[in-house]
Amino acid sequence: MQLKGIHHVSALTGVAKDNYDFYTNTMGMRLVKKTVNQDDTSIYHLFFADAEGNPGTDLTFFEIPMAGTTYTGNNSISNTALRVPTDASIEFWKQRFEKLGVEFDEPLIQAGRLALPFRDPEGQRLTLVSDEHNEGVPGGKPWKHAEIPQEHGIIGLGPVKITVPQVDASTTVLTELMGFSEIDGYSSNGHPIRVFETGDGGSGAEVHVEARTDLSPERPGKGSVHHVAYRVEDMEELKAWHEKLKDARIPNSGIVERYYFTSLYFREPNGILYELATDGPGFDTDEPMDKLGESLALPPFLEPQRSQIEARLKPLDTNKSN
């Protein structure tokens, strides 16, 4: 019953094409699945990951064309980290961002690791974090990209930061329900941040909790994060988590079949949406590994609706970067 680390982070974008261009061409991540939001099949759901779509490497986006501007604030997943291999990688990315006009802050030490905060074109709050002094959950395999040497490529998700007003309520859920341990802390712009880890620990298994009582609740829009998912070994364990949530009288979604993994959703006391997701079966269950993300993939229960679904979607060419 121990969570293995971060499984994926899902965020919002206003334009799938521009989102695809940035995360494949600028960031060098691989589009491993082009599908639709299973709860609203009129919008794309894009999965960017390492070369093989390994659990713990997926940054995903729902396309919401009418999404407004995000007004950042409390009760939010306020930053997502992406792991790179070494401290030298941070300098490589700083120079690349300068060349390409990507908005970034100066490198800093964050929880003992060299980090580079930056924003995507829609204001998504991201941080590159070096794995040079990291131990714990291993990273993935960077995607081969013409402009990004593999020794500097993105290898997975790093710590997720949540910003909440009632910090004890959030940390109690992390430790007493979800099995995280508090291991560290640091300060950012004068605000305390507590560090929690699960599983084998390390950058790919951390949640950073920022306590803020001076902010209004975040108003989400394009560039905001919808939820963070944590890794569960298999269906047997996911069912045990479902029973644990029911025993704790925590409202939840029940078991949800996502085809590429199976999920369970619930909200913690500050409104943060958590998902527990199985490691398998994986993204190559319906596409060969060398063709991931090239075509619109639909789970079997949506396949009979393919013609109607495709008619509602804007064409999105995803062959060029794969």
UniProtKB/TrEMBL annotation:
Residues 5-131, 156-279 form the VOC domain. The lineage of its organism: Bacteria, Bacillati, Bacillota, Bacilli, Bacillales. It comes from Thalassobacillus hwangdonensis. CDD domains: PcpA_C_like. GO terms for molecular function: dioxygenase activity. InterPro entries: Extradiol_RC_dioxygenase, Glyas_Bleomycin-R_OHBP_Dase, Glyas_Fos-R_dOase_dom, VOC_core. The keyword Oxidoreductase applies. It holds the Pfam family Glyoxalase. Keywords: Dioxygenase, Oxidoreductase. This is Ring-cleaving dioxygenase.
